[in-house]
Amino acid sequence: MDDSRTPVLVGCGQITQREPDPSIALGPMDLTAASVSKAAENAGAGAALLEALDTIVVIRSFSDTSWRFASPFGGPVNAPKSIADRIGNTKAKRLIYTYPGGNMSQWCVNRLFEMVTAGKVEAALICGGEALATQRNAQRAKLELDWSENTGEAPEHWGVATRGWNDNEDRHRMAGAIFSYPLFENGIRHHLKRSIPEHMASMGKLFSRFSNVASDNPLADRRDGYSAERISTVGPDNPYIGFPYTKLMNANAYIDQAAAIILTSVAKAKELGIPEDRWIYLHGCADAHDHWFISDRHNYYSSPAMRIVAKEALEMAEIDISAIDKFDLYSCFPSAVEIACKEMGISEDDPRGLTVTGGLPYFGGPGNNYVTHSIAQMMDEVRKEPGSRGMITANGNYVTKQSVGIYSTEPPAKPFKPKDPAIYQKNIDDDKGPEVVENANGASAIETYTVMHDRNGPSYAILFGRLSDGRRFIANTPDDPTLLQNMIDQDFMGAQGKVTNSKGKNIFEPS
Description:
The chain has 15 helices and 17 strands. By secondary structure, the protein is α+β, with helices and mostly antiparallel strands. α1 (28-43) packs across α2, α1 packs across α3 (79-87) and α11 packs across α12. The protein starts with 6 loop residues before the first strand and ends with a strand.
């Protein structure tokens, strides 16, 4: 077959900055540009490759995603144009900034590979970076930095702008990852019929294996090699964030990290003289999402979207899961890994390992850009073992948006042509969970819950419950310190009680 339009990844670059002085540390755009230069060097084509880029995609920064990470120092108006200027590129006509989602790096690879195959793209860059450690250090030092850049008109946007929670969830303070993933975790624990201590130990064992990988990765932010007991034991330096998650079970966002990957057509790679031993092929891929708001899910221990994207990617690659040599499962919290393992049919202690980086709590969780790092690392891994296959999973929002890629140095036997995601997305959309009641009143029981913590300890509880007729509601509990502590020390899954609504807010009181 004519392989001139076959898409290949050709270069990857990663940087972890550990400069303690914020006055001389690189800001996010400079850090990202440095990773792009490394990716071009990795491809063996240098400046010629950077000049040839016709498409530049920048993964959305956390400062533009969440109020918790908003930058007091400004930022670029057009991030891809800022990168183009730094790397000396004047050719790129397609400048793209993504909407939020940890799935977006893999999603963009999937879309760009389609565009290369269609002859719409010859050379493209996906990159992103965060300097949240430097941002925090500068704020603590009361240092004024200027990261603002007015480089002209706003870029094109890819992805979905809709936020991950609805107004009813927002009223009950369920508005972000640290609030939602613990709800899934207790749902998983209850489904597995484990006690709280048993499940804490299991989560510690799972993430200790990620931490061990990070300890051997010079790019990882936390390289201590935490034991299972250390990860799962609550203490002054490892407090609960949202029960049952300790600090060491949460993605570590306060890092300075950037990564870039470059892809081209085979024809462009040959034209630029990029050696074939640099080329990485995408054998299988798929994208889907579960119901957008977690109120609408069937349960809090599964992901139909994760199951379907894994199945579709493997079918496209014409292999089964046993043919995968290496994995990097998205690991913002234990529940993301546990659900992926269940839906893909692999063990949590699979001897192949579940990460090549060390995962978001230990390698680092650079906002929406983590998967650019995991793809870059997987490129290096499969190059070390030509013909091996590596699978990446990417997760956006709250076990919501799922993307998968299967990579290898071995050329695929057929042209790149993934199935239209709309075909399998419809089955997910048509299968909705229970009816949700916004203003709930009456006898009810807890379906899942979490207790959020601040510096002083338990702060407030979020729960999903069911009325006696099976309808679902979201609620908080009374601000009772004793009750909150009991919800941590005892198992309140399935606890009976009464929910009442006042001024649009549901309050559940256990019997």
